[in-house]
Structures
1.
Amino acid sequence: MFEEEFSSKLLTKAVNEFAKLPGIGKKTALRLVLHLLNKETEQVKIFSESIVRLKEEIKICKTCNNLSDNEKCDICSNPKRHTGVVCVVENIKDIIAIEKTMQFNGLYHVLGGLISPIDGIAPSDLNIHSLEQRIVNEYITELVFALNTTMEGETTSFFLFKKFKNFDVEISSIARGVGFGDELEYTDEVTLGRAITNRTKLEF
């Protein structure tokens, strides 16, 4: 058993906890734990306290569902952003990926997933109603669908297009510089930036 490899139960427990993180194997977990052990106690306290504070104090933006320190995230509260253009994404990681391109100056709306009947995810499970409320209550002129080019992403785009096609809002999608089946967070910044800049009016 893995637990028998170490003479210290404290070390074993710490390694096992780190190994629960996605993409972290037992060897990497051990390396990280040993790295922390070589740090000053105060540095380790700062590290651990920042994680606890993150968990306890992080908020969800009441407008776009992005992570935030306040009721509204820095993007939604930024007066320099184009408030009439809303980019619809699956999750917060997609916002981070798009922001890195520095090619989009509008706002965002995080759906919190994609429609997937196989996985039991229906439209009602996503933040679609709040998006509709934004279209009704805010002066939104364009929706940009920046969803993964997977079957689930295409299904979600098609559903949203049918739902909002009769609203007084232009609907567009990122250009197909992103290959079919690719996820936005793993797409390089140049390709993703061009896809945002060269977005096209969406028609099904």
2.
Amino acid sequence: MVSELESRWSLSLGPPVEGDEISCSWVAPATRDAGPPLMLKIGMPHMEAEHEIDGLRFWNGDPTVKLLESDTRLNAMLIERCEPGTVLRTLPEPDQDVVIAGLLRRMWRTPTEPHPFRPLSEMTACWGTETIRHIDQWSDPGLVREGLRLFKELPQSARSTVLLATDLHAGNVLRAGREPWLVIDPKPFVGDPAYDATQHLFNCLERLAADPTGVIRSFADLLGVESDRVRLWTFARAAAETGLRSGFRDELASLARALAP
């Protein structure tokens, strides 16, 4: 695949990028002719990232990296390179809150029909099915079932729906030259904007666990969304994931109980 794309798009590739932030794709720096620095990305087949190419086309560099070439058959993307490419995670978490909130507010637009994007309920249903598959690992069945109930209820009760990033956290935001920060790796679904707060919050788990109500209210205010809905989404994810993620089960269960409606 790499050789085919290298030839077709006239690329000169550097060694592939490695690191903790890269887990579901093959990524390498690329150049062609005398053009700007680029990145070649080939994504693994992944339910959540199925429409990443469509999302990058939709946002068209505002505020994501720009998509220059794509091949949906290979799930391959030639995108602009962020330079210097420092991850937002290097900033203190309260500063990350401000940057993430600003980026999300820019991304939240309603796509015109017809469009390829799936409803958020499809992703939460997939997660629910996976959680039920691990029912023998549930240490608190009542907690897990309440999370799964909200996975079904919350998408239906949203007052507005927009195109979501769903996986926007400080590891998926890079410092760039065209703008101070650009988004990479969007996993677009259409749904409740309050949901989009959760991925960043779960990447600040220690701070969230220390003051769940205060952290959620502060971040919701930055986003301009209802803090009660962010709280419910955060509870639902924490409760449901106690039945799935053994590595953080105790921390997630404590968080879920602190946020329980």
3.
Amino acid sequence: MGVEKTNIVLLIGRPGSGKGTQAKLLAEKLGWIRLSSGDLIKEIRDGNEPFSPRVREMYDKGRLLPNWFADYLLESGLLELDSHVGVICEGFGRTESQARHLCDIIDWLGRDLKVINLEVSEDEVRRRMLLRGKTEDRPDSNADEKITERLNLFTEETGPALEFFRGCGRVVDIDGEQTPEEVALAIENTLKKS
């Protein structure tokens, strides 16, 4: 299976592992659509939807939104696209139930999924997130206790999702501590070989 067969790529990894950066680079390189739960949630957070205040409250505390909310965002995004359009997903499949739901949708659509796990140490993601909190004015990354909470959530919630994907044979681990360009090249090479 090469890039021509894999038409949905899910980027997963600890907060601050570079998923957003890699999603942008990969989408640009391949000409694929990028679906980012973070971007969609930020739009809602900053908007005037009836539920924007609730989203804003949870987002600013660094908490995950309910599984059904992320499922809704993903379903809406995928069902609106033609089946030949390649998609880079980032920020979905954060819990085992979301991972199962995502696989059900993709299998039903007859599409193929590859999960790229960006491996970055906790120390490195702390450094990156504190920097991001300052330079990007990110309320979810501006204090060590919020970062600790997000890392704990990753271990508790996303760890089982990653193992589910791994059990399905869909995961490729990539060293996320390389330069962004090196990580992008490693992902591209993985997609060509897989």
